[in-house]
From TrEMBL:
Membrane-spanning intervals of the chain: 34-59, 65-84, 96-115, 135-159, 166-185, 197-215
Subcellular location: Membrane
Bilayer topology: Multi-pass membrane protein
Family per record: Belongs to the GDT1 family.
Keywords: Membrane, Transmembrane, Transmembrane helix
Cited InterPro entries: GDT1-like
Pfam families: GDT1 (PF01169)
Name recorded for this polypeptide: GDT1 family protein
GO molecular function, one term: metal ion transmembrane transporter activity
Cellular component GO terms, alphabetical: membrane
Species the sequence originates in: Rhodococcus spongiicola
Length: 234
């Protein structure tokens, strides 16, 4: 079992690096508490990989992926619209913050569940479970994916602390739209580089966010003081 755990951990961890699931984790962490995001990812990953090892061990075939990818793409478009709308709490609603946290957990878990069904990490888990101990593959693949996504959560949480709320909301919405387009294009046109196109959009938004952060810091530290000094001299 230990060999299956180590093998599946390494395979899935490497497969997740730069994958859309990692980018999704970073996006969710921009706006929500990191432990809620990590909990939703862990729950969804545990369930998806249990299904994967079951398919690989007992059936030896994968689930149909086209309809699932289309459904996941639509879900991410909805998440993007929800993010653009924004959320604000009144004094009374502050007392119900626990319910909001619960809804975020469900949103993250459902998003990752839909996105991972038919993804390359699921197919890799199915393949590993067909030839190795399924319990070991389940444990190793789950831990490997959670570990890779945890790295992205750290990045998203750190960025979210230093960026304006409006910028975070718009950036997250654009990323969700890109994920939705990624999944839909992969389902409808499997031979086209949909991932490359959507990844380019993600990189562009990330660069814009980083540039805005740099300009904000520069403005706060230097530009206003210089302008004020010039005004006093004149």
């Amino acid at each position: 079992m230990s060999a299956a755990i180590l093998l599946s951990f390494g395979v899935i961890f490497v497969a997740e690096l730069g994958d859309k699931s990692q980018l999704m984790a970073m996006t969710f962490a921009l706006r929500h508490r990191w432990w809620v995001v990590l909990g939703g990812i862990t729950f969804a990953t545990t369930v998806v990989h249990l299904v994967s090892v079951g398919v690989g061990h007992f059936l030896g075939a994968s689930l149909p992926t086209t309809a699932i990818s289309l459904l996941a793409g639509l879900a991410f478009v909805i998440f993007g619209l929800w993010t653009l709308r924004g959320d604000s709490l009144s004094d009374d609603e502050q007392q119900r913050a626990q319910k909001v946290t619960g809804s975020v957990f469900l949103a993250v878990a459902s998003a990752f569940f839909l996105a991972e069904l038919g993804d390359k990490t699921m197919l890799a888990t199915v393949t590993l479970a067909a030839d190795h101990d399924w319990v070991g593959v389940w444990i190793g693949s789950t831990v490997g994916m959670v570990a890779a996504d945890a790295l992205a959560i750290v990045v998203g949480a750190l960025l979210g602390r230093h960026l304006p709320e409006v910028l975070v909301r718009i950036g997250a919405a654009v990323l969700f739209f890109a994920f939705g387009a990624w999944l839909v294009l992969e389902a409808l046109f499997p031979d086209t580089p949909a991932g490359t196109i959507s990844a380019g959009a993600v990189v562009g938004v990330s660069a814009a966010i980083a540039g805005t952060r740099w300009l904000t810091r520069r403005t706060r530290t230097g530009v206003p003081a210089e302008r004020i000094d010039t005004a006093h001299r004149s």
